[in-house]
Task: structure prediction
Amino acid sequence: MPVINSIINWVNFKRIYQIDLFKKHPHEVQRDVLFGLLDKASNTEFGLKYSFKNITSEKEFRERVPIRGYDDLKPYVERMMQGEKNLLWPGETRWFAKSSGTTNEKSKFIPVSKDSLEDVHIRGARDVLALYLKNNPDSGVLSGKALTLGGSHRINNFNNNNSYYGDLSAIIIENIPFWTEFYRTPSTEISLIEEFEEKIEKIIQHSLDENVTSFAGVPSWYLVLLKRVLEVTGKSNILEVWPNLEVFTHGGVKFEPYREQYEKLIPSPNMHYIETYNASEGFFGIQDEPEKKDMLLMLDYDIYYEFIPMDNFRSDSLNAVSLGEVEIGRNYAMVITTNGGLWRYLIGDTVRFTEKYPFKFVITGRTKHFINAFGEEVIIDNAEKAFRIACERTGAIISEYTGGPIYMKEHNKGAHEWIVEFEKTPDDMDHFISLFDGALKTINSDYEAKRHKNLSLERPHFVVAKPGLFYEWMKRRGKAGGQNKIPRLSNDREYLDQLLELNQSL
Result:
């Protein structure tokens, strides 16, 4: 173990130097990334179709290769899953991350090449550790183990061929170096149990006596696990179970709605929370400064970035700008080109830059996750901020929520309806709603205009969810655990109506 720790520390030191280099030379690094990708894929079917060998500039790349979503790449992906080689990326792609997302019920199968697995996903995890140790040189994180929840879908075989699919976390667990077993708990076998509740019980059974110093994953699912740990042990907080716990690396959903609950479960001023931006499609950002909530855009992972201004976002005419053209404070849809074979792929997330040189950003929402039934253009970032203000002023704590429109009827104006599960319900719900409504008006001028004298929108409607509603809803949809996310906003009532019906039956 001391030998392994020494090697890790040496690698981390070297990596910090490399990170400092792309901070200083972002555009040169990104250009090199793009032309490296084009060169490697020039003889693939996709590379030949778009004459990658003849592309001489970033501008020419944008002009020649169209922006596309999953449905556009799906024919290639389906052929890759049948074992065809050299389609989007050189060689054979054997691994596919199953991602249903939150916009529809269809499963997406995102190709995870050997290159993207090693040079993006695993590299990103290593960089989290490197940056954490840089900021916390006296850390004892390597003296203990990382608690691993694992994916909700085990690895499955496609039609008995050589291709496999599952949650990205499950794919990573299957492919990480053997020596990482020394730093993880529970075993790989337990981490990959498909049934979520069974997995939680087994994790607790096998990990209570371990020296857990860290964990990483989606905040909502780890919250379920940690609360169950307290139920099983009878302890009042997690530090009574794992006293040396010091860091939670989180991603997938906004952490702020969960922060207060975690601080109650883990009552330590020395507990660290690190936000990351990783997805089935790639690993994109890491919170590199503990005192700031934005993330560093990782520029040397064989991912080339472009950005579509959301105020000009039209599905029939998508025009992206390069990293050098982005503006601080503006909302962008992110477009990626990766060593997994995703070419100018519209990932569906929106970001806002907070700094340039180095490039820092925050996630603001999804291109399809908003409420704009009446021209109000409410995005997830708006809702999160409004909820935070209302909670701070009332002492309320929110577990989960989702919102959508109430459509105008003959004699009724439209409104927004929110179904909210509280960890701590406000004493005065009417006051809470007023605070939320007022905060949203301040944050979003379009919403304020529509709410003016109830012109188009009435005061928001709130439904208090019964305890455990959202977990039960996700469970019944086969989406408990893993990277599955609760949809926060929707421009229709599909999710709202399902939740309201279930809430009545619980």
Remarks:
- Residues 415 and 459 are 7 Å apart (CA to CA).
- The radius of gyration is 23 Å.
- The longest strand covers residues 345-355.
